[in-house]
Amino acid sequence: MRWDCSFPTSRARDPRLGSAPRILPPPGLILASASPQRREILTRLGVPFEVRPADVEELEQGPPGEVAIENAYRKAAAVAASEPAATVLGVDTVVAIAGRMYGKPRDRDHAHQTLSALAGRRHVVISGICLIQAGRVRTTAASTVVEFRPLDAQAIDAYLDAGEWHDRAGAYAIQDRGALLVRGIEGDYLNVVGLPAAALVELAPGLLGA
After folding, report:
1. Best CA proximity match to 102, nearest among 118, 91, 89
2. What is the C-alpha separation between 18 and 31, in angstroms, rounded?
3. CB-side neighbour CA atoms (13 Å) of 149
4. What confidence score (pLDDT) does residue 208 get?
5. For burial by CB atoms within 10 Å, which of 94, 100, 188, 209 has the most?
6. Strands 49-51 and 29-31
7. Which among 88, 69, 29, 111 is positioned nearest to 199, based on CA atoms?
8. How far, in Å, are 45, 135, 147 from residue 124 at the CA level?
9. Separation CA 185–CA 35 (nearest Å)
């Protein structure tokens, strides 16, 4: 099976910005997301932040990498519009096989269909990251390949009973019982959880005082 998970690694949303230096976020980062996983990752990294979830219309179709970056930008831009002096972080994570995305399931039946499609196969988890500071926009993305074990209907139903599929791209949570569905991964584990720390610090070295 051949599948393409290529995507832009960095872009400037506004060509007038030219070759702006990398953003070095100060303390007081705003996370434009309600994700508890992203909050936990930033907390463990020792990054001071506050949470301002963004209510935006997200793309659901298109090349997965571009969709993830665009949605991350929309989240960050929505918050930055009311906080122009702040550094705002937007993140979006998508799951895809051969370019087809598997987003957050609508209901249990949809979650079952998603896990059935992922069972016994390799999929790619892509997170888009956007940082906006003082009108400057920087974006990047990270991808991790995840391989699922073969799963029958009974195994899928048993996992769904745990309720972890709610509000999860791909209908699973690798940091919890979803780890039992996984045979192996290639790439950044934290990316699958929801925030690729390595990609974030490469985009903004000052985040950790690097």
Report:
1. 118
2. 25
3. 12
4. 67
5. 94
6. parallel
7. 69
8. 25, 31, 9
9. 22
Average the pLDDT over 3-28 and give the result: 41
From residue 79, how far is each of 32, 67, 90, 183, 198 by CA, in Å?
7, 19, 9, 38, 24
Question: For residue 83, what are its two tokens?
Answer: 């906080």
Residues designated as active site: 92
Is residue 119 within 8 Å of residue 102, measured between CB atoms? no
User: What architecture is domain 15-205?
Assistant: Alpha-Beta Complex (3.90)
Q: By the 8 A CB rule, do 144 and 124 touch?
A: yes
CA distance 99 to 85: 37
- Report the SS3 class of residue 171: helix
Question: In this predicted model, what pLDDT tens digit does every residue of 121-178 receive, in sequence order?
Answer: 999 999 999 999 988 999 999 999 999 999 999 999 999 999 999 999 999 999 999 9
Condensed to tens digits (0 to 9), the pLDDT of residues 83-137 reads 988 999 999 999 999 999 998 999 999 999 999 999 999 999 999 999 999 889 9
Token couple for 54: 């963004």
Find where tokens 């972080």 sit.
Answer: 89
The domain segmentation of the chain, as residue ranges, is 15-205
- Indicate if the pLDDT at residue 49 is higher than 80: yes
State the amino acid at position 127 in one-letter form: S
> Greatest CA separation found in the chain?
55
Q: How far apart are CA 184 and CA 72, in angstroms?
A: 27
Q: What is the pTM of this model?
A: 0.83
pLDDT of residue 47 exceeding 50: yes
